[in-house]
Amino acid sequence: MEKDKALEELFQAQKPTFDDSADFMAALTKRLDAVEFIKQHQEATIHRYKMAMVAAFVVGIVSGGVTIAFLLSTPADVPLFTFDEQSEVLQWLSDNSRVIFATILALLMSLGIVSVINNVQEIVSKCKM
Amino acid sequence: MTREEFIAQVEREQEALRGFLLALCCGKKDDADDLAQDALVKAYLSSAGYQDMGRFRSWLFKIAHNTFLNHKASMRTMANIEDARTQFSSFSADSSFQHQDLYLALSTLPPKERSAITLFYLTGYSIKEIATITETSEDAVKKQLSRGRDKLREQLTIEN
Question: What is the per-residue pLDDT for A129?
Answer without folding.
Answer: 57
